[in-house]
Amino acid sequence: MEIRVLRYFLMVAREENITKAANLLHLTQPTLSRQLMQLEEELGVTLFHRGKHNIILTEDGMLLRRRAEEIVSLADKTMDDFQHRQEQLAGTIAIGSGELQSSRVLTQLITLFQKENPLVTFTIYSGNSDNIKERIERGLLDIGLLQEPVDISKYSFIRTPVQEQWGILVRTDSPLAQKDCVTPEDLADVPLIMPARETVRNELFNWFGSYAESLRIIASGNLLYNLAFLARDSGSCILTLNLGCSYEGLRFVHLCPELKGGTVLVWKKAQVFSPVASAFIDFSKNQIPVIAQQSFTAEQSLYNHDSF
Fold first, then answer.
1. 22 pLDDT band (50/70/90 cuts)?
2. Does domain 89-162+263-307 match CATH 3.40.50.10860?
């Protein structure tokens, strides 16, 4: 099974038409058809349902599409790493990050690093900590910004200086929106939308204490933008981190007692990285303490100003 043939397969799967795919690949239609039939023979499965005007993937075809996308992506990343080994520091760094306030630390690192290394580009994958760890293990990501609690025993890491603050997003016409903060008792009989990650849910259940058994959980998810529509339409509350974003018709209210969590920038232990990824990791090790000190100094200055 050659990478080249997998690229052919992915093009046909995207276009759902062999003639269009062949034109885009600069191949003749018979050549492309023969390559696909040889791939099916090699795998011993039927990959396409063939019609008069288009072809669509079978279940086996959809499985191969997912695998092929990962294989081709990893092959491209490997090729990019080797191509830039002997040149000026250049290449692509693949980073995964959740929806976090700590992302601004990551953006600072990227911005500062690119100023020194303008030939470096970044690929940013958005997902939760479980998704990101899985892609790191597969070699599709170099580095991940993970929300705690998370098992990082397999990774080297740096803690970021930002503490993530938990609260709820609730409709502005709800009595809860008028509060400065909400307690477990306030939320005991309210329809709730929870995070999808089990470890995070367990942390929130601990915060609820004895009220955890009586919660009305109506949905879970990991994309806040989508969940915000559900909360606004259904009148439910989203348990979420404070991302500093505004959503029409919704207000963020902190939890009390407050619940906070940290984040970590991680990469695999004993991993041989490309020169550009290694340089960025070393840069992050040196720069994050500087960012942390700058944040502390800014907070102290603001505190002293408010004291007057």
1. confident
2. no
pLDDT digits (tens, 9 = 90+) for 144-155: 999 999 999 999
CA distance linking residue 48 with residue 174, whole number of Å: 52
Residue 169's contacts (CB-CB under 8 Å, 6 or more residues apart) are: 224, 227, 228, 231, 237, 238, 240, 247, 250, 251, 252
The pair of three-digit structure tokens given for residue 245, joined into one six-digit string: 């974003």
Q: Does domain 3-81 have CATH number 1.10.10.10?
A: yes
Token pair listed for 151: 């098992």
Asked whether 102 and 263 are in contact (CB, 8 A), the reply is yes
Nearest to 68, CA basis, from 130, 4, 17, 24? 4
Q: Are the C-beta atoms of residues 140 and 92 closer than 8 Å to each other?
A: no
Q: Selecting from 3.20.20.70, 3.40.190.10, 1.10.340.30, 3.40.50.720, what CATH number does the domain 165-261 have?
A: 3.40.190.10
CA-CA distance, 83 to 78, in Å (whole number)? 9
Give the span between the Cα atoms of 95 and 122, in whole angstroms: 7
Query: Same CATH fold, 89-162+263-307 and 3-81?
Result: no
Q: Which H helix or E strand runs over 146?
A: strand 143-147
